[in-house]
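Notebook entry, structure prediction.
Reason for the run: the old model in the group folder had no record of what sequence produced it. Starting over properly, with the input documented here first.
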Amino acid sequence: MLLLSILLVFIASFAITARALVPIRKSWERQVQFTADASHELRTPIAVIQANLEVVMDEPEQTVAKKQKWLNHIKAEADRMQKLIEDLLILSRADEGQENLEKSLFNLSETLINTLESLIPYAQSKGIKLKTDIEADISFFGDKEQIKQLLVILVDNAIKHTPSGGEVLVKSQIQNRNLVIKVTDTGEGIAKEHLTKIFDRFYRINKARERESGSSGLGLSIAKWIVEEHRGSIHVESKLGAGSTFTVVLPPK
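New structure, fully documented this time:
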């Protein structure tokens, strides 16, 4: 009887310990995967920079002007790598609980309008009309800079997936005391099999094209993190050939 009791205690202790280790194991596995993905993503810009540097160094007698093409490639890849590293740092700090929001009450309507105005030239350069429908005088308690980043990520994503001649509409209003932001595009749309994955880190629907456009595959992951830190939700509705709508719902506090 004593032996049986000891055995039961041992089994129970083992089960409790195993259960306690589950989040630790998951965290470790997530960090390992994160490191592997980050290394893979950094490999491409580094390889491009090295290749272009070799071309430049092979002809030392040529002027900078004659090597401008290769130097432009190096600059573009360096910029891309810098953005990728910044995004990686945000997500890494978020995983460790070190990326704290600085919340305050601010005029959300004014913030959204100013942010969108800065994006109009970018949209125009792509032949896309950026339209707005922002409810006036909305006050919101949250991290102003993170909300601006959220909007930039969603609008940039919409522009990248909308062909020239298309439109992107940003709408914001208060519904049932919640702040609702919708970003709708007339782009290519997203197939159903991708809808549940687009917020995953490093996920790209078309890897070659999106890497060429400068996408790191981290933007929507960061957008989701910002929304969740504000205790909100984000989801997407889409139809191939008919565009997509990203909807963000944020509680008042």
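Summary: Strands lie at 103-107, 129-134, 139-143, 167-175, 178-185, 233-239, 243-250.
The old model has been moved to the deprecated folder.
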